[in-house]
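TASK: fixed-backbone design
INPUT:
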C-alpha cells in the first residue's frame, strides 16, 4: 500500500470514528464502504463492526469484529462487542466463548465475569453462571445494582443459589 493510500485510509477511519461518536453510525458505515476490504486494517474493521452493532445489525457486525479479534486477541473491547453481537444474533455459545477469551486477558475484570454470567444463565449453565456472578460481585459490588433489572438472569432468578448470592452482597 502506498503512503498516499495509507494516509487516506487513516483519514477515513478518523472521520468514521467521529461519526460514531456523534451517533451517526450509517454515515460511518457509508464512509468505511469507500475502502476496499484488502486495504482495511484492524481499526477499520473494528469501526465497521461498531457501526453495524450501533445499527443493530448484529449478525453482520460479527464478521468484521472476528477479524479484529484474530488480529488483536488481547483487546477486551473487541470481545465485549463480539459477545454483545453473538447474544443478539442468537449465538449464545459464541457469546460465552468470547467472554471466556476476554477473561483470559483480564481475569479480574468484573464486567467480563458479569457478562459471562448473563450468557451462561441464558445457556442454561446455572452453576457456571452463579460462579461468574459471584466473581463479578466480588471484584465490583456495584454490579449488584444491575442484577434486579437484568433479564438475562430470569432463567436462574428463582434458584436458591442465585438468591443467596444476590442477597449476600450489600
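OUTPUT:
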Amino acid at each position: 500500500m502506498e503512503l498516499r493510500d495509507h494516509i487516506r485510509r487513516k483519514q477515513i477511519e478518523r472521520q468514521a470514528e467521529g461519526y460514531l461518536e456523534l451517533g451517526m453510525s450509517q454515515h460511518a458505515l457509508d464512509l468505511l464502504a469507500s475502502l476496499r476490504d484488502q486495504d482495511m486494517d484492524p481499526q477499520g474493521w473494528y469501526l465497521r463492526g461498531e457501526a453495524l452493532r450501533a445499527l443493530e445489525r448484529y449478525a453482520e457486525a460479527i464478521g468484521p469484529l472476528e477479524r479484529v479479534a484474530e488480529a488483536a486477541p488481547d483487546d477486551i473491547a473487541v470481545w465485549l462487542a463480539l459477545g454483545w453481537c453473538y447474544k443478539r444474533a442468537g449465538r449464545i455459545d459464541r457469546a460465552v466463548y468470547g467472554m471466556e477469551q476476554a477473561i483470559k486477558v483480564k481475569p479480574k475484570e468484573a464486567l467480563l465475569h458479569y457478562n459471562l454470567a448473563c450468557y451462561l444463565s441464558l445457556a442454561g449453565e446455572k452453576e457456571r453462571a452463579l460462579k461468574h456472578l459471584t466473581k463479578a460481585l466480588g471484584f465490583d459490588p456495584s454490579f449488584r445494582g444491575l442484577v434486579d433489572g437484568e433479564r438475562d438472569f430470569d432463567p436462574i432468578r428463582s434458584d436458591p443459589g442465585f438468591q443467596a448470592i444476590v442477597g449476600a452482597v450489600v
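COMMENT: The mean pLDDT is 94.
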